[in-house]
Amino acid sequence: MWIFKARLIWGIVAGAATLVLVVTGALVILVGGLASTEQSNQDQAQSGCVGGVNAVPAGNLGPDGEVPEGSIAGFDTEQIQNARTIVAVGKQSGVPAYGWVIALATAMQESALRNLDYGDRDSVGLFQQRPVSGWGTVADIMNPVKSAQAFYGVAAHTGNTGLLDIPGWRKMQVTAAAQAVQRSAFPLAYAQHENEARALVAALADGVSAADLKATATDVSCTIGLAGISTTVIRPIQAGLAVDQGNYGNSGSNWANMHTGNDYSAPCGTPVQAAHGGTIVIESGGGWGWAGRWLVKVQTAPGNLTTWYAHMQSLSVREGQMVKAGQVIGQVGSEGNSTGCHLHFEVHPHGGGYLQDQVDPAAWLTKNIGKTLEATKQAAGLPGAGQVGASPAAVSGPQVRLAQANIKVTLSRSRYRSDLAEVMEHGPDFVSLNEAQSRTVSDISVRGYGTYRASADEYGTRSQALSPVVMWRTDRWVAVDKGTVQLTKPVTGVKNDNRYATWVVLASSDGSGRISVISTHTMTSPANSPQARKDEAQRGFAKLAGLAQGLQKYGPVLVAGDLNSPYPRNGGDGDPWGPKPLMTKAGMTSTFEALGAPPQGWATHDGGGTIDWLFGSNATVTAARQATFKLESDHHGLVADFDIRGQ
């Protein structure tokens, strides 16, 4: 679903044996290109391990990392001084020496180590950074210290992604790590400068060894467990060979509901690898025509982690074949509903179907690359156990109570705990909390309740990922699965629009079934903001709706949160970028729509807005009653009872 950009057309030539590039005035011949990489991958596929492709050659360094005589010949005083600056900034910022190599190779490619006041469009400086892309002012970028800080990701003048922001960069090839920062139209061009960059670092910095100037490990693991036991996660296309279009959750004419995966643009013929171990499932014909001749799935076990691969032009696997992470399964193509060469990649943690349980592939990869995932096993005695491939039974019959409370982040701990105690006075089965990012674990803990939110170790102690919290009564419910999904990404010039949803699947302790609860805190109202911000909000609600619809596979779903979009009290859909139409399409109905105004009136905020919502899946849930209650926070508490129906 991605239109191939003209500046990337060169990549199609990579199927030939030789690429010829003209870089900084010199004719450079790269033998092999992508074709040799593909062949190498295929040669090693039988072992299930694509190893060695990211190995870093020693180049012209001596055995102890020393620089042989004359190795920096050809660099003039200006270039050496700029190289010294780049190395010094990296050292002062605590960047490992391998990062200095990446930075120098990047500057060699972009500017030949010269502080240029010109470039492609508005690009200037050592790294050819663009003011229009948020790298700073021209003065910032023309300052070698500031431009180096920006490349490393330690600058105060820009929030753009730098090297230290790239997960696993120390394991990447030089060219892959450089491309992750630069996002160049020529992602493989940095590789030609690796050896010279290492030589320069060794000449300019004391105390570095050859090992310091190499990647710490290959990016592709060779210690893979068999499917159904454990599996290491890798990229579906080798690092540096594809561009992530970041279009999960998008809406448009190409997609009937929402874009349920991510598109990774790469030249047709680029090898596609299994992102983890598993068994091959091949879907074709019928409703799978959008994927091309085949939709390939790698399944760890029925009802467990499954990834999807679409639009491939050829396959290297067969139905039922067991593969390991990194094994080549096919080639990038443009088959089916496609407008250019790319891989459509989906992640389904629970093995669901279309619009069921899919998550943002980019976020999932960022979280899991390099990790070994244990296959989920059905717990003895839980509904669905022993029925291979069957969905767990849903809770049926009881009435449950859900409470929502956005307790203001600036309240003191004592006032926060007072508000939380007020919430608990209503005896909820489940609680959704918002603005909890600055709260400790003890702040959000209540005797008799389990609590889940995102990990501070992973996201940072004040990240918006920690804002939504799900709580549940431990005498009635057991958490059997949980996770956090990013809904919206930053929009230039606007604060606090990284927003998330946290979800928990719970099994009833009496064995009656399962129910899912989602807590979310969506971005501050974009009502008076530019259209780009409204579009991002709409994408966020589409992702929330997709998550809710996917979890319906397991039975009833409840959603709660401060949605920062007012309920349309006078009918209609409300904000054109808002939640009502998308959640309705996902089979979710708000308590306001089902019951009208709470007895206390519409307001859920001191300002009079009705911006805190509760939803239930209308196929399995009926809202029975609701109420609001005052808190010290600027938001009111919202509570509702839901009758659970059989499916």
From TrEMBL:
InterPro entries: Cell_wall_metabolism_enzyme, Dup_hybrid_motif, Endo/exonu/phosph_ase_sf, Endo/exonuclease/phosphatase, M23ase_b-sheet_dom. The chain crosses the membrane at residues 12-35. It holds the Pfam family Exo_endo_phos. SUPFAM superfamilies: DNase I-like, Duplicated hybrid motif. Residues 258-351 form the M23ase beta-sheet core domain. The keyword Transferase does not apply. GO terms for molecular function: metalloendopeptidase activity. Residues 418-635 form the Endonuclease/exonuclease/phosphatase domain. Keywords: Membrane, Transmembrane, Transmembrane helix. This is Peptidase M23 domain-containing protein.
